[in-house]
Specification:
By secondary structure, the chain is of the alpha/beta class. The protein has one domain: Glutaconate Coenzyme A-transferase (3-Layer(aba) Sandwich), CATH 3.40.1080.10. Helices cover 15% and strands 25% of the residues. The strands form 2 sheets. Strands 1, 2, 3, 4, 5, 8, 10, 11, 12, 13 and 14 form an 11-stranded mixed β-sheet that branches. A 3-stranded mixed β-sheet has the order 7-6-9, with no helix packed on it. The radius of gyration is 17 Å and the shape is globular.
Length: 218
């Protein structure tokens, strides 16, 4: 059975290592902070100038002055720091982020990502996405495998305006976990009950299936 958005976030959290500095994009990626194991230390960074974000606050405990880059109320862990967005982007552009988790509208088989604009629709702007994909050491995309029309979002090439080129390393969807290399989308794990044939039908880009395929733990 396909994972829900919380299952996707849990699977992404397994890719985060002790001591990582991590930036989470809006949408599903923001949920990842809720699933970090207790035995590791992770430093979540936000483009608006916060290092040391914790899980989302419980209802009634929100501080309206403490938000992430997506305008959501967040918590701060002991030792957190606040600074200007200029310093935040210096941290990003300086290559000090170990992992970025982003949503996407499209990902191509060579690792291009489109996640900021649909032509003809109003958008608030690029935000920090372009800086993050050009500077982070590792990019994981957390998204739905197909769009609302049932069309694949994993394509031979992106049709929407690009955010970054050849930068996505891993993808977690409700159906599977994939890695990208020069061959295309390499299937590593399936969601419980999902078949390889379902992945083939839902993936328009070049799919590589080899060896033993694991089961995702959402």
């Amino acid at each position: 059975m396909p994972l829900d958005k919380y299952g996707i976030a849990k699977r992404v959290a397994r890719e985060i290592k002790d001591g990582y500095y991590v930036n989470l994009g809006i949408g599903i990626p923001t949920l990842v902070a809720n699933y970090i194991p207790d035995n590791i230390t992770v430093f979540f960074q936000s483009e608006n100038g916060l290092l040391g974000m914790g899980p989302f606050p419980f209802e009634g405990d929100e501080d309206p002055d403490l938000i992430n880059a997506g305008k959501q109320t967040v918590t701060m862990l002991p030792g957190s720091s606040l600074f200007s967005s200029a310093e935040s982007f210096a941290m990003i552009r300086g290559g000090h982020i170990d992992l970025t988790v982003l949503g996407a509208m499209e990902v191509s088989e060579n690792g291009d990502i489109a996640n900021w604009k649909i032509p003809g629709k109003m958008v608030k702007g690029m935000g920090g996405a372009m800086d993050l994909v050009s500077s982070a050491k590792n990019i994981i995309v957390a998204m739905q495998h197909v769009n609302k029309e049932g069309e694949s979002k994993l394509l031979p090439r992106c049709m929407l305006p690009l955010t970054g080129k050849n930068c996505v390393k891993k993808i977690v969807t409700e159906l599977c976990f994939m890695e990208l290399d020069e061959r295309g989308f390499v299937l590593k794990e399936l969601a419980p009950g999902v078949t390889v044939e379902q992945i083939r039908k839902s993936t328009a880009g070049r799919l590589v299936v080899e060896g033993e395929i694991g089961v995702m733990e959402g």
